[in-house]
Amino acid sequence: MNAILAPMDLATQILIVDDDAGIRSLVSSFLERHGFKTDTAGNPAEMRAKLTGSRYDLIVLDVMMPGEDGLSALRKLQNNDGPPVIMLSAVGTDIDRVVGLEMGADDYMAKPCNPRELLARIRTVLRRRARNANEPSGAGAGEGAPEARNLGFAGWRIDLIARTLHDPARQPVPLSDGEFRLLRAFVEHPRRVLTRDQLMDYAGGSESEHYDRAIDVQVSRLRRKLAVGDAKAELIRTVRSEGYMFVPAVQRI
User: So what's the pLDDT on residue 3?
Assistant: First the structure.
């Protein structure tokens, strides 16, 4: 039975980056049969060259490549606000997965992977990105959430529409899509203990994968981004056996 095409598929361009020509061809052909447009690159340098001339909605990026590996390529993508990334790796332990997520990947799959599972993960990441891009300020925040475009906390400023964050010195702080969604969940529910399940619902939506460690990794990454200026200030508190609390007061500005 053929999978039902999601409307987004017909206009979605995916870049597949892998040094194995056979895998590039297999993944590309499968995704194109399911309505996506695809392009391929054999290494990170070729990927970056293609990114300068074309727009891609998502990148499927192999980890184990000769020369520059996928993790190094991912780091450069995150520094330049690149598209969402799903990592593929022949090394599929929890530790490797955590490293990939910690470096900014939106998802991580072990190779060899089931093409239908990859298809499902791609659609989940794209739906999540589209939902967050189109969601009005305050939507999905829950009862009592401040409905404002700009929120401030401890000298920081977050613009929920432009999806930007500025530190107390008014310098922009780049955030990955996952980091922004997590910070938004915190600022819209300040001074409340949020469980990992709640954070996954708020930050990832109902289609997010229920993987507790992924939330811990995202929180760790976000804490590092917020550790500027007075690095001793505790903005996100770990509440043992319960979850996390966003400590500072949040104001509409």
Answer: 39
